[in-house]
């Protein structure tokens, strides 16, 4: 179970004036999964050059909960009921924002407790036709309590060209039902746009607001994946693997941009529902990602000294399809999934990332030195400027010693040379000098660990 419980400190509820506390319990959310599975596996050595069969069943229960914060974290105490023209209406007599500033708490109307069950069955078969050629096939059937049935499959083969060279290939389909959080998450929060606070709402997928704007029910993401790889033992202790892949995902679920109540087409509807700005989860586009993984490993032992050098490189290119809006929002592609959100999605599959790891072990002593190269990333800031984050190289070092057979002490540092992303002079996503791209923006990190194993 994962649980996030938010407490906001060093803030206030402006509508409470001088009576406001400076610390609030803002509520939170949690996701729990309970999985029960049974698996069977057997190898038959008398069928051709070997046949392996595996199958199993899995039953999973998902539970997603949002729980409210204390009243002062979300309530606007300046809003009162009054009678105007014989009708009870709400008016704001203070004109101050309510709730804990910066992070209003979850409200009673945000609370929910939702469940989903999923029953899956799979079969996996692998057959060695000869001592050089293997073929395999797998299938998985799943039935969801809220998304019906699905069937996915995989076909794979491996062929040994030479004693030290092998080819492999695979084709598979994929399915991902919207998570309970994507369907049901809802929250009101304060965002700062050009220094001005704006209250926004993320509306759950089945809310009246979502339906009013014509956002359809979320549907599943589907995928097709093709890969081709090569494994080569270049010489003793040196291994090279190269894998190319192409992944197509249809109907990716994303969070839209914010539709504001001053919009000439739908602003009236937002105001009628007392919403200043709104965002939604929706199936917005198809993507295609092509890439290459390269891994080169060398290891050797000299007396009691063990050395290993590993290089890993990943190179990607993602293409975005047309934005799929709803009929009511056809002319608003730049908000539905605009350039800013598109760049964030592209940054999730950066063009390049490489690492070089040097490991040395002797008896009870262990050491590891890692160099990581992060390729250039470009994001769009709040005022539509391109923020370019240049390539960076970070260095990590760890040293460990086995105090006993069951006890190990380790010390080290991540990003030991304190490398930061490229500084920006515009309004970044975080509001600071940079965003959490590439290696993050926390700089050098020291650690010490004492590990015990049974």
Number of domains: 2
Biggest sheet: strand arrangement: 1-2-3-6-7-8-9-12-13-16-17-18-19-22-23-24
Question: What's the story with the biggest beta sheet?
Answer: 16 strands, antiparallel
Structural class by secondary-structure content: mainly beta
* DSSP summary: helix tally: 5
The rounded Rg comes to 27 Å
* Oligomer category: single chain
Which stretches are low in confidence, meaning pLDDT under 50 for 5 or more residues running? none
Strand share of the residues? over 45%
List SSEs in N-to-C order. Answer: EEEEEEEEEHEEHEEEHEEEHHEEEEEEE
How many strands in all? 24
Helix content: under 10%
Question: How far from one another are the termini?
Answer: 25 Å
Assign an overall shape.
Answer: globular
Average residue-wise pLDDT: 89
